[in-house]
Design a protein that fits this description.
The chain is an alpha/beta fold. It is 29% helix and 21% strand. It has three domains: 1-97 and 178-249, P-loop containing nucleotide triphosphate hydrolases (Rossmann fold), CATH 3.40.50; 111-171, no CATH class; 275-351, no CATH class. The chain has helices spanning 48-55, 87-93, 115-126, 132-145, 162-173, 192-209, 220-226, 244-249, 254-260, 301-305, 328-332, and strands at residues 4-15, 22-33, 37-41, 63-73, 79-81, 98-101, 180-184, 212-217, 229-234, 237-243, 320-321. Helix 3 (115-126) crosses helix 4 (132-145). It starts with a strand and ends in a 21-residue tail after the last helix. Mean pLDDT is 87; it is low at 336-346. The chain binds iron/sulfur cluster (SF4).
Length: 353
């Protein structure tokens, strides 16, 4: 595997101050490698967007990073902890080392400025020495890179379609050739044809320019097609992380299996969509055990009392799962074999190795 470019370690985020904040990220660990597309999936409210905002220190109040580290490796191989950067260092790192395409980005363009002006503003701030001609040439190059004719530089945002505005935002994010591109539901507001076109274009640009992508979406079936690895989030934690094909073919966490069962299959015969019963938990009222237990068809006694942790991958595996069904000690104690060591349901066949 290539070198890490973004390493998130034990990241904690609260919303609200005082004695009773809501813990929305609870010890997230995630690594993005050079050139990789890492998909981040989960239901609304699981903390996906908060993770992207926190990792770039763009979290608005009342969000508060209460612990953890975010290490970013720049083009020259220098590592820096984003959470420890000064404001000036942070401004320099944004767009140059890490860029973000926000949810609803196509509404983020300023309606009163032409596209060209908006594209060149960010470049000018980072490279003040560039002439007006160089800036315009770079803006034209960026537009064409995302499949828009350079003569649209003089257009206002309302003169472009939704898909074109979204491409402009992607061009803007790539303007300084960042190492890491965080994309938060970049195609949610678009129809499926445009969604596919834009994702294919991002992948083609990734192959050409060599940046790494964190692609955030609730649509895990989309990630199966474009991501190298997938991390599944639930209630502010990563509950499973593996290669995209492993998650698709053999999801091990019951929540991952439920998410996959909520979307039509990509291949094979049609099947009825199963969905996931219940609703995501109230993060202010989480018990000591597994947050998914009230919705999990395989919950055991131990699940309600002991929180499963995302341990290191088992020997010979490239997968981490936070579920007692896959806890080596509990498996050794008899879970999945009906030994009665734990009054559970046994390792269900769809989640077995
Ligand atoms: Fe279900 Fe228990 Fe695994 Fe949680 S730990 S997902 S409740 S089996």
């Amino acid at each position: 595997m290539s070198e890490p470019v973004l390493e998130i370690r034990d990241l904690h985020v609260d919303y609200g101050f005082g004695d009773d904040p809501t813990h929305v990220l609870r010890g997230v660990d995630l690594t993005l490698h050079r050139g990789e597309v890492l998909g981040l999936a989960g239901e609304s409210g699981c903390g996906k967007s908060t993770l992207a905002y926190a990792a770039t220190r763009l979290l608005p109040p009342p969000g508060l990073i209460t612990g953890g580290e975010v290490w970013l490796t720049d083009r020259e191989g220098r590592r820096s902890d984003v959470l420890g950067l000064t404001d000036a260092q942070l401004r320099a790192a944004r767009w140059r080392d890490v860029a973000i395409v926000f949810q609803g980005a196509m509404s983020s363009l300023n309606p009163v400025f032409r596209i060209g002006r908006q594209l060149t503003d960010g470049i000018r701030a980072h490279r003040p020495g560039l002439s007006a001609g160089d800036l315009e040439a770079r803006a034209a190059e960026l537009l064409e890179m995302v499949g828009i004719s350079a003569d649209r530089l003089r257009a206002y945002p309302h003169q472009l379609s939704g898909g074109m505005r979204q491409r402009v935002m992607i061009a803007m994010a790539l303007a300084l050739e960042p190492q890491v591109l965080l994309m938060d539901e970049p195609t949610t507001a678009l129809d499926v044809v445009m969604q596919r076109q834009i994702l294919e274009q991002i992948m083609e640009l990734r192959d050409r320019l060599g940046f790494s992508v964190v692609l955030i979406t609730h649509d895990v079936s989309l990630l199966v097609e474009v991501a190298d690895r997938i991390a599944i989030m639930y209630a502010g934690e990563i509950v499973e992380e593996a290669t995209a094909s492993e998650v698709y073919r053999r999801p091990r966490h019951p929540y991952s299996a439920g998410l996959l069962g909520s979307f039509p299959p990509l291949h094979g015969p049609r099947r009825e969509l199963s969905g996931i019963p219940g609703a995501p938990p109230d993060l202010q009222r989480l018990g000591p055990g597994c947050p998914f237990a009230p919705r999990c068809p395989h919950a055991m006694d131990v699940c309600r009392d002991v929180r499963p942790v995302l341990g290191p991958p088992r020997t010979g595996e490239d997968r981490r799962v936070a579920c007692h069904l896959h806890d080596a000690d509990l498996v050794a104690a008899g879970v999945g074999e009906g030994s009665g060591a734990i009054s559970g349901v046994g390792l269900p066949p769809e989640l077995a190795r």
